[in-house]
Amino acid sequence: MPPFAHVLAGFTLGFRFRQGLGQTLRETPRDAAITNLDPERLAAGGITALALDFDGVLAPHGFPAPLPEAREWLARCCAVFGADRIFILSNKPTEARRIWFRNHFPGIRFISGVRKKPYPDGLQRVGELARVPLSTVLMVDDRLLTGCLAALNAGARPLYIRRPYRSFRHRPLAELFFMVLRAGERVLFSFFPHC
Predict the structure, then answer these.
(1) How confident is the model at residue 192 (pLDDT cuts 50, 70, 90)?
(2) Exposure pattern of 54-70 as b/e (b: 16+ CB <10 Å)?
(3) Does residue 145 surpass a pLDDT of 50?
(4) Neighbours of 76 (CB within 10 A)
């Protein structure tokens, strides 16, 4: 598969699912961050498994481990869902991150060996490993055209993080790039009418 096939897929699938992405954006509170998500409330709403992006969702770009508040939130999620139903679905699953999770949350698994988001492959694997219907899997991501689009494409539920973790001190160019990218996605999908 060509190296940037997932980028092209983001645009073509983004057009196909434009109304769903617009709805996801409209339904997301402006202060949406993982620490504002109550695992018990998610479970009460029918969620049985979580797929989590890493960069922006659990830590700023390039960090090897989740931030302390994200770690506390992960512990709460493990208590509600069980670690075996929580997955890291990142387009950048580094070895340092795998090692950190193996040492601190050994039950949480990384999804690898699948096409990158927005392809549905990673979420399909989540559904298989967790043994739950995709309609009960929540994909938590800070990008509309990757994780949220993958969720719509797979038949899972998207949850958009509007307030991603950032650190301009550690990776100024990467953070600036993704800040502009996220803003562009929000502008683009804010124009699509309600479903």
Answers:
(1) low
(2) bbbbbbbbebebbbeeb
(3) yes
(4) 14
Dihedral sign for Cα atoms in the order 20, 21, 22, 28: positive
N residues, the chain: 195
User: Measured between alpha carbons, how far is 98 from 83 in angstroms, rounded to an integer?
Assistant: 15
Q: Are 175 and 186 in contact (CB under 8 A)?
A: no
User: Peptide bond preceding 118: is omega within 30 degrees of 0, i.e. cis?
Assistant: yes
> In whole angstroms, how far apart are CA 154 and each of 46, 120, 133, 192?
17, 5, 11, 21
How many CB atoms are closer than 10 A to CB 113? 8
Side-chain half-sphere CA neighbours of 43 within 13 A: 12
- Per-residue pLDDT, averaged over 169-177, amounts to 86
pLDDT at residue 6 is higher than 80 = no
What distance lies between CA 78 and its chain's CA centroid? Answer: 17
What's the predicted TM-score (pTM) here? 0.91
157: DSSP letter:
E
- Top CATH class, 13-189: alpha beta
Which alpha helices (DSSP H) does the chain contain, by range? 5-16, 18-27, 39-44, 68-81, 95-104, 121-130, 149-154, 172-189
> How is the chain split into domains, by residue range?
13-189
